[in-house]
Amino acid sequence: MKVEFAPLSTPLPRRLQTAAVAQWIFSFLALAQCCTVAFIALFFTRFWLLSVLYATWWLLDREKPRKGGRRIHALRKSIIWRYMRDYFPITLVKTAELDPKKNYLMGFHPHGVLAAGAFLNFCTEASGFSTLFPGFTPHLMMLSLWFRIPFLRDYVMSGGLVPSDKESASYVLRKPEGGNLLTIIVGGAQEALEARPGSYTLVLKNRKGFIRLSIQHGTPLVPIFSFGENDLFEQVNNPKGSWLRRIQHRLQQIMGISLPLFHGRGIFQYSFGLIPYRRPIFTVVGKPIPVQKKFRPSTEEVDRVHQKYLSELSKLFEEHKGKYNIPEDRHLEFI
Prior knowledge:
Order of helices and strands: EHHHHEEHHEHEHEHEHEEHEEHE
Radius of gyration: 20 Å
Largest sheet: 8 strands, mixed
Strand content: 5-15%
Distance between the termini: 29 Å
């Protein structure tokens, strides 16, 4: 098997690496609130016209996220993402050639707490995506609610993020010219509650919507496993059936996002904080699984392709786990 890594530049200063990661975490968590507050507050100042103009633009542009978004290459290539890459570090690994004349549907596993590997590999150029996959345009699906927040919607679209709904996915996958990679973090918010060091539990046994979507468009499936994704944070113990897990599931049903109680290190100390631990991530992209196109696949056809996907994902994990210090007796668990 041919394995390729993108050539990376010289690592950047460690202090700047930590600052870049802190900026990514805190800016995104705070940005949603700040954008909403700023949009509303401007109506009560002499700058009210800015909010009116943006609201008009928002109305005219409301369908853009569902039509592939609007990426800004200068932001994708920003040096801050190189600092973030070197902090962990994060490496994108290619194991098979992909045809740029086709579109592909990629399943990313596991979600982790913050999906750092998915974001950096497919929403920036820090790990050398365009070098490894020339001729392809990457898209990463994200919860639709983030695209309803003023200003923030434009920021997340700049990296290639699109809403996680069928309409957005279909728009990308049916492009006749090919060359599009649509990445779905299949386990979603629920899988974030399983994210802790040494965990290889994937919420995938009953996740078949992406399989059906792939068959309807005749789009090959590509499994991805991001080794180290679950090692970035510790999480408060929340076994199934516990009061904490019940509350987390209830909040997920109400808000659409899960709230894992996690901690990492601090900026100036290593015992406690919200900065992820400095642990390497290797995002391994597997080989494509051919899919026969059928507009209305039967349940049996979906189940058959789903089982094939589980098998190929397990195979990918088993073939590479030894390289990344995972014990031989550890295997993927599907729930």
